[in-house]
Amino acid sequence: MVVEQTNTTSDNDLLAQIKAGQSDLFAVLYDRHAPAVYRHILFRCEDTAIAEDVVSQTFLHIWDHIREGKSIQSFRSFLFQSARNIFVDMTRKREFKNVSLEEILENDDRKPVGKGNLLEDIMIGEEVHTLKQALASLPEHYKEIITLRYLSELSISEIAKVTGKNSGTIYVSLHRGTRLLRQALVDAQPPTPLKTFI
Amino acid sequence: MKHFDIQKSFNAAKKAPVNNEWQALGRAKLVRYVAMQPIKSLSGVAESPHMTFPLFLKLKPMFALILIAAVVLGGGGTVAASQNDLPGDALYKVKIASENITEALTFSPGSKAERKAEVAAKRVNELVALKKRDGTVSAEAVTAASDRYEVLLASIDSITDKLKPNQKLVINPRVIALITGSVHEWEQIRSSTPTSTREIVDQVVTTALNTELTISEQENDAAKQEPSLIGLKHRAENKINEVTRKVASVKANFLLASTSTTSSTSAKMATAEALLADAQVKFATGTYAEAFTLAKQAQRAAIEATQALHRTKHDVDVRKEKGDEQRLNTNVSSTTAAEANRKDVEKRKAEIEVNLRANGKTNIAPIQD
């Protein structure tokens, strides 16, 4: 079946078939990667409208790139690199500041993520909330690399292509960033009550 | 010390749901976009978009239109070639079609409102470009542009009305800035069009000013619902900057006006400037809430000054037209009377000559005037 074949076909093979004339396969790439880009942008800005726009603009940009005959060596790297640039442009135009810790704390009526089981939704919401609080205390370049690695699951070389830095720098930044993040998560925990000895 | 598994912490974030309806809609629109703009190396027409221009020039207009329709329906690289086209040019319809597709692929209401405001401003820019290129703008081009512009304004108004308060505080100022800019360009068009077309321009400017006022009121209502102190300084600063631009634009419109401003227009403008100055003083002292309120009042006064200026210009044009008509009628009457008088004199002379001849006095020289 065509659907099964496209599900197992790699991104590069799909790109080759698209360039050969099967432009309808571009929608397969959209189905495969749009949710990941959406979650990445949403995690960074907490604005569904911006996340939706960035996704649609990103895929338009990629299609224009393909139809111009330009090559794409790594689709995922190019995808996240494009999304990153579009997000920066869009938020710069809107004088948008990344959600600060202060604003996170002030936003009392945040809706929990997920749908379905309310208790699970609340727990997921709390966990993500804690994670974001901890991430917010990190420098921006650590935040971006950590999110690309752990949320969007990009490889080190892919992250290097997205950010324009070399792999060695990414390794070091990732190591330092995760150490700071762990410390921030520890600091966010309530203090353990002291045991009293009678 | 508790050890945190970073990956496990992020696994919860990966469960954030994606709106299936949005994803399906985005997919469908992307598929249409891809169909409209095929890969260049595979499309014979798209291969050399610049060559299509000489081709069109040689074709008869009807055939050119049919070919344009085929490109729009079947896709092609002429979309890129059409972007600099102006009303009346061969690929202008392709340009409009591609704008509509891009707009359809904008999902968030806020972005849609901004995009529509940008497209509306583009319609007026095209008229300014036409004037520069051809030296004149036809009544047909002005009418078509104003129709499209007004439809866009109505759409923008309905979209911004439905935005959430925090979205209005971001989107509405940007939309207002775009409308302010386009009103200034309409004023430029007005000053260089024949009197008959000015009424069309006056009508569209009135609509634009009313829309600006409405969207400004929406923003003000939203600000009341979002009294968070964190954003108040930012909002006051944005509002003051927005109104400063508005006041500068209105002053520029005054300069463009060939008629002198009335006392009411000047008074409104003076009020706007005074309120703006007060807002800046309040901002400097850190009283952001008052600064925002004063800036809002200044904005309203500036918009009312523009409305008053427009009414004045319209009235002057109407009086001028009536004055020209009266002078024309007077000239016509004078001419007719003079002609009638001359004929009367000729008749009288002829009668006198007949009488003289009848009385045998034929040697008398003809009556001289």
Layout of secondary structure:
The complex is a heterodimer of chains A (198) and B (369).
Chain A: H1 2-8, H2 11-19, H3 26-45, H4 48-67, H5 75-93, H6 101-106, H7 118-136, H8 140-151, H9 156-163, H10 167-187
Helix pairs in contact in A: 3-4, 3-8, 4-5, 5-9, 7-10, 8-10, 9-10
Chain B: H1 6-13, H2 20-36, H3 44-47, H4 52-58, H5 61-74, H6 78-82, H7 92-104, H8 109-134, H9 139-161, H10 165-191, H11 195-225, H12 229-256, H13 263-284, H14 288-358
State the major sheet of chain B.
Answer: none
**Poorly predicted runs of chain B:** 44-75, 361-369
Percentage of residues in DSSP E strands of chain B: under 5%
Number of strands of chain B: 0
How many individual helices of chain A? 10
Helix content of chain A: over 70%
Instruction: Determine the structural class of chain A based on helices, strands and strand pairing.
Output: mainly alpha
Poorly predicted residue ranges of chain A: 96-116
Number of helices of chain B: 14
Helix content of chain B: over 70%
CA gyration radius of chain B, whole angstroms: 32 Å
Proportion of strand residues of chain A: under 5%
Task: Please give a quick description of this structure.
Chain A is mainly alpha-helical.
Outline the structure in words.
By secondary structure, chain A is an all-alpha fold. Chain A is built from ten helices and no strands. Chain A is elongated and about 60 Å long. Chain B has 369 residues and is mainly alpha-helical. At the A-B interface, helix 3, helix 4, helix 6, helix 7 and helix 8 of A face helix 1, helix 2, helix 8, helix 10 and helix 12 of B.
